[in-house]
Amino acid sequence: MINNKDIEKLSGVFATKDDVLEFKNEILEGQDEIMEKLSLLLQEKEIGNEQGKRQKKVLEIHNNALKKNKVLSIEEVSEIDKLQVF
């Protein structure tokens, strides 16, 4: 039969309910921190994508204006066209 002394010995080996709840809370807090950081990163990525689109459009407008008004030589226009990877 198990007595109080045996229970004390076993309590050092096995996790108690409080230990499990504390561990669960730590895990959930860590997940909350990760989700907050992920949310910020996704927002920054979306903003960066939008800025990139606007920048691309501005460059297209500039390049087209330079081509139309023949400010650039044909070679320069060709070189710019080759650089457009987007």
How would you characterize the overall build of this protein?
The chain has 86 residues and is mainly alpha-helical. The chain has one domain. Helix content is 81%, strand content 0%. It has 3 helices and no strands. The protein has helices at residues 4-11, 17-68, 74-83. The termini are far apart.
Oligomer: single chain
On the 0 to 100 scale, the average pLDDT is: 86
Portion in beta strands: under 5%
Work out the count of structural domains.
Answer: 1
Helix content: over 70%
* Helix-and-strand structural type: mainly alpha
- As residue ranges, the low-confidence spans are none
Largest sheet: none
Radius of gyration: 32 Å
For the record, give the distance between the C-alpha atoms at the N and C termini, rounded to a whole number: 77 Å
H-E string: HHH
Shape: rod-shaped
Please count the helical segments: 3
Report the count of strand segments: 0
Architecture blueprint of SSEs:
Blueprint: H1 4-11, H2 17-68, H3 74-83
List keywords for this structure.
single chain, 86 residues, mainly alpha, 3 helices, rod-shaped
Write a concise synopsis of the structure shown:
The chain is an all-alpha fold and 86 residues long.
